[in-house]
Amino acid sequence: ARKAHHEHDLSPFTIFLMSKNVSLLPRLFDSLKDDDANVSTESLKITGNLPKWLKGTLVRTGPAKFEVGEFSYRHWFDGLAMIHAFSFENGRVSYESKELESEANRLANVAKRNVFSEFATYSSPDPCQSLFRRFFSYFSTAHNSTDNCNVNVIPLPSSKNPAVLAAMTETPYSIGVQLKSMDTLGSVRFSSNQPFQTQTAHIHTDDDGNLWNVAVYFGYYNHYSVFKIHKSDLEESVNRDLPSLLSKEEKEGGKGNEGLNIKSEEKARVYMNQASYMHSFGSSKKYIIIAEWPLIAYTSSFALASITKTPFMEHWQWKPELGTKITVISKEDGKVSGVFTAPPVYSFHHVNAFEEDGNLIMDISAYDDSTIIKTFLLDKVRDPNTFFPTSRFERYNLPLSKWNGENSEIHVEPSKIQVPSSFELPRINPEFTGRRYNYVYSSSSIREGEWGNRIIKLNVDTREVKSWDQEGLFPSEPVFIPRPGAIEEDDGVVLSLVMNPKEHNTFLLVLDGKQFEEVARAESSAFVPFPLHGSFIYS
Asked: pTM to 2 decimals?
């Protein structure tokens, strides 16, 4: 057993199961093999009964290739991306997967090393480039940031076929992907008219179809930028530029060509002395929430990166004495509607946010500190003895009606739900985004400190937890799909891609949303390294 468990509290059989399960963990991060990279299966073997109403495609991305030749990346987040999709139609499930043909991937395969710096793997610049140019190029919004879009995939609206997706990472560079074939198309630039170096890969869509995101600009005046992409502008850009995005010239040209440039409106600008590492943000019907965890970085640190050869991850410092700062921005006029402080925590993911009785409720998945980020280094996730920090559900009640103005702050304390073992990769019924809700689905673990090997359904009001797990299997982020016409919040199914490292294969799990019991699975012979995020696109 691992040192975090108390052996005298566990039966010999439980200890045996733990050692058996843990020994499979390194296989989850095997580098993608060519046989598994580009797979097309028209009809997967189905066990159980798929709901007849389930029609559409679950598309996911994630880090998949961790070695190129003799070169090895350092971190789970560094892995070169693979896109994969499960499509439901007429009771059948098809499967398609392809490596994302990013410039980062193409050049790495030519050079047999990383050419672009990734999250935790630094890439030395061209030795012929002058020190002066290297020093200042780090902050150019046109510099060679990676386009390794291994974090999320979202649909782009278009009146033309084929449907187009945008694969995203946290740099300004996204990539278009054709839904049906999973072919890489070309570059996509959200907010191409705004200067910034990083953005979240968790774009929010409001009830009117407008997109919202938060980006970070490092420069003389550091700031967070809240931008809105109007639905009409988005559709116009996609329909206008789609032919060039689909053209061979654009596909081969990579992110350097025009591609798809989507303009936005900057709704707000929040200045700061140092930036907080922000993977996601909160969004309710009326407000955007910028939560600054005390994991911070200074402009000077990034400016010296080409001299110190420091990757992105190493610039961030945990400063718990700063606490957490929460700034609320009005979607209507872009003005600050509240500033709040809270105890220090770290969070990758917001769950949901909604207004109620003059207050704004913000729900997150929270860790005690930022240790989890370095625990995702490949030598850690491939180590059976690694203890993974646990996370929990936290709710913040932000009293907007009591906020007195721009120079005031209100301290708030969160309420906490410590679910068994952990709470991460949370998803809800998308119809309840920005509204009061009851249920959240997330990754968890059978025992404290283990990698996610269980998924749960949490009732945030009653704190009741239902779970699905099976020894030796590792389910990924659960995605809830509401049944068309459903009235009850949990009337639908939950989809999760499940890795079986022992058999080196994968299956798509289908759970009933209410009882959280298995109704079907679609089995694929291809193995997928543990993925991150994605979307369900209705037919």
From this structure: 0.91
